[in-house]
Amino acid sequence: MTRLRVATWNINSARLRQDQILRYLQEAAPDALCLQEIKCKTELFPGEPFAALGYAHQAVKGQPGYNGVAILSKHPLHDVESQDFGRAGDARHIAATMAQGLRLHNFYIPAGGDLADPQANPKFAHKLRFLEDLGEWSAKGAASGMAMGDFNIAPQEHDVWSHKALLDVVSHTPLETQTLDAIQAAGGWIDAPRRFTPAHEKLYSWWSYRAPDWAAADKGRRLDHLWLTPDLESALKSVEIHRPARGWERPSDHVPVLVEIEV
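^ that's the sequence the OP posted. Answer follows.
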């Protein structure tokens, strides 16, 4: 049996936060790290420092200025692909197969803007198209592995600091949460973090930059997810949401989520 540690993190600019990525790789030592919102062209991704730490295997789908996803791995990556979920030509998905035949799908679902009305808000309409495509993909069934990333949806009541206050706020509207629940159910996906933290307990992976003291206010949301295919449910050993990273110098507003499995 082999223990594998896989993490996901919306880094909000890989070049700006290169040092934070290096620090996390050194401290947590995941076998693979999936990054979202790398905010650079593929050829400008700062891969060399990560390779020097042992993460020489990299799959990158970049986009200048915004979006972009990447996978850093200690192990060879095979069958790299990217699909155009949402049909907008954005770099929001990349997949690869790593050690033990584990298939990784790295997603950056659109945030959706501020207004939960697809007629009045094109960004929200785009988010719904992305979720529609994701639902069709999930229903087909996925190879043994993980779907992870910044889903930009906090689906459960205690995935947000106030369920009542955020019901009309994009990321926690009933339309979004019910749609994500249906996508998860269609593929039988296992919500890894909630296997260790009961649904009645608060669980966050994101804290807004707007709060003067994010830790004291603690008005978070669980926007970052890590799902396993059903065959890996018994392989799940631990999950860590690395809250301290939110307090690092020039932090992302998201923190890493890491899962450990034995396959």
